[in-house]
Amino acid sequence: MFKKILTHILFINALIVLAVVLFLQYAVVPAIPQSVFSFYVIALILGLILFVTSTSKNLEEFWQPIEVLLTNDKLIVLRWLVLLTIPAVLAFYIGLSMLPSNQAPLELRVVHPAPPGEIIFNGKTISMRDVVNPFRAYETSDPEKFTEHVELGRKVYYENCHFCHGDFLDGKGTFANALDPKPANFQDVGTIAQLQETYVFWRIAKGGPGLPAESMPWQSAMPAWEGILSEEDIWDVTLFLYKATNHPPRTWE
Ligand code: HEC
User: What percentage of the chain has pLDDT greater than the value 70?
Assistant: First the structure.
């Protein structure tokens, strides 16, 4: 009887699935992403289905215990046990997977995703290709006016941004330690120095919620400032970020 169970096609198939799932989940280092895991398991199950259905003898042997379980009235207790255990185990795992976790996901976060072609800011369409910072031209044409706008931007920054991005624009604000991903360090050449002003405008206007899916696995705490700051405020603070860090903004040239 025992040997019959151990060599039964249903038992062997279940064992293979279990072994492969456990192996992929716990023995493969470094761990593989969930999507690759699902792909392997689905491929395995498809293979096993092909095998089981390849001959009618296999198929009959596979279904026979299931049929007995479902129809034999002597097994009514076992039947209910199995029928209740399957959804209970599934519910348990789904519950587990929905628990909040503070672990960084395996997928890498795209820090600078491609921006949308245009954005709608307070009902106005702003093209990411054609629009430039309207106050940038003052840098050469009217330095006094330029400084005025930089100072306005400084005000915007120290009223709204330094809590996270830091007094010295180095990403070390009071809240920074509690955040993952960390607030951008504007002094570092890896942030605004690589970006165009329109890109920076988009990031300030739409914040973390405006990021496309590839930047999503890590929830960004960067607020969306649309509705709080005006268009001018955002262009001003952008001028200030570049001026205070001495980085020139990136341009199409
Ligand atoms: C609650 C904290 C917080 C506040 C307040 C905040 N930011 Fe951020 N900011 C972040 C975090 C975290 C990131 C990094 C994640 C991301 O890119 O969304 C970020 C990213 C950015 C970026 C993108 C930099 C890059 O390299 O892509 C810009 C630009 C920016 N912030 C500007 C501002 C400005 C301007 C203000 C004030 C008006 C501001 N932030 C206020 C948390 C904050």
Answer: 96
